[in-house]
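Suppose a colleague, Dr. K., hands you the sequence of a protein chain of 355 amino acids and asks what its three-dimensional shape might be. Before reaching for any lab equipment, you can write down a predicted structure in token form. Begin with the sequence itself:
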Amino acid sequence: MALSIGIVGLPNVGKSTLFQAITKKQVERSNYPFCTIDPNVGVVAVVDKRADKLAELTNSAKKIYAAVEFVDIAGLVKGANKGEGLGNKFLANIREVDAVIYVLRCFKNEKIVNIESKIDIVRDKEILDTEMCLKDLEVVEKRIEGMEKEVRAGDRQAVQELKILEKARNILQDGRALNTELWDNEERKILNKYQLLTSKPVLYLLNGSENEISADVIEVFKKNNWQFLIIDVLTEFEAGEIEPEERKDFGLPLELKIDDLIKESYKLLNLITFFTTGSDETRAWTLEKGEKAPAAGGVIHSDFEKYFIKAEVINWQDLIDAGGFASAREKGLIRIEGKDYIVQDGDVIEIKSSV
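The predicted structure, expressed as tokens, is then:
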């Protein structure tokens, strides 16, 4: 499965430049608000050195990384929840993604139009939060009103759902995002039906150089446990156009932080990576943390989950250190695991089924 990440922010904060830096896909980046109207979508590989080493070990004919889908969505403005700017279109598009990157403008460049009076990172974050909270509140209140008949009739499921939605309404009325609250599995199951905007995991990208961001702002983000990365998006975009060995001559960074962003985005939904490897291919597979071996089989092929018998498992590093499967078997490093085995990040797995 490909994790879908929405890139959002106020107009002219660097969303589309970031999208290009990530996907190398050409999109319109003109210097005016709403230059991105329809969402641009690009799928990129999550480069993983573990897959590289496994492919080398087993002389794989091909190598397939896990993937992340990035969606560049039109800029948001105050009043989007009421349809201001491209508000309704924006909010409809963002419902479709699994997680969100908030791009917040930190860079000081008078040539790039700023629709706000001045650069204020925390204020911009609050604008985005408020618009999403208000839209979620509208959805929740509408659903609560529509449930009155079912609740009066004594529908147990409706009563339980109403209780969860009322809890969500109280949080939203307090101006807080739903992802700031701890929810149990049943509550999440109910909330997920409505694709609520503020229930999605968020990563904040502070777009600018470190010397353009005050220590006070960094302290606010850390104090509130807001997950963030500082990236000068334009510099990353320019560096990505030049071969690594030539970047130094242009005063550009040798290592790109965009790779860190892709990896952090992949982690937003509590996912892990397991591997299959052999002479045909080495592949990185995505699985939700806490899932068991049959579910891993189902990711590879639906019949592997249905007709699961057992799994042969070894940690990727143990396999590398052993020098291959034959040596690993001789050393007793390959384990036989049953249907209750919880898959770990970095496992190399071979599923045995009755198919």
